[in-house]
Amino acid sequence: MNRAGTLVGLALGGSCFAITGLVVASRVAPSLRVHYVDGRYLVAVRHLGQWREIREFIQPFDPRDVGAPADVWGCLDWVCRNISYRRDIGEFWQLPSETLANTEGDCEDSTFLLISMLRWFTNAYAVLGSNYGWGHAWGATEGGEILETTYTQAMIIPDPENYRPYVLFNERDVIEMWPGALREVFELRRNEARKLNLIAAALT
Question: Is residue 49 part of a domain?
Fold first, then answer.
């Protein structure tokens, strides 16, 4: 599938991507978390004053090295069963090796780990966007299949219309659904407990 086809697939059938988030107060203003420099997408999501290129958070490795099968749903199930959900305090993105070592993380941490596994053998993207209007991260195959890593086992999500992508990326590519979308990700409201309750309710 070419990039145009990828964008169509990942846009979930041409859904409208309404901006529903509000700016929230934090130690770092959302507008100061992102810099665009010479084709690079720099994010301040770790230690104070530390900038990272967003693609650095995807670090491909052979999933068999951790006992996961080399197929999409096998990797997703392994992450769901082996990485416990932990809420962020503030905004701190773990590298895949840190998530493996800690065996816990929030939605972006488990997503980055999953995509690092998948990129060993197939094309996939980490997605930053909104879920029920709250900031969220998930994985996606090239064809647009949503891979939710906060479940306790791999499942097909029942409510794809509530997943609205802003930015897709892996270690090679960054795709903003519109100019400045990466900045807008950090303006989305964060309420992890409510978001997880909504996800759980969708499964019942």
Answer: yes
Which of these, 64, 73, 57, 72, lies nearest to 116 by C-alpha position? 57
On whether the CB atoms of residues 34 and 43 are closer than 8 A, the answer is yes
Per-residue pLDDT tens, the chain, 204 aa: give them: 444 444 435 444 433 333 222 223 334 565 588 999 999 999 999 988 899 999 999 999 999 999 999 999 999 999 999 999 987 666 899 999 999 999 999 999 999 999 999 999 999 999 999 998 899 999 999 999 999 999 999 999 999 999 999 999 999 999 999 999 999 999 998 766 666 666 666 666
- The residue to which tokens 């990039």 are assigned: 3
Domain total of the chain: 1
Provide the domain limits for residue 156.
3-21+32-203
Q: Is residue 26 part of a domain?
A: no
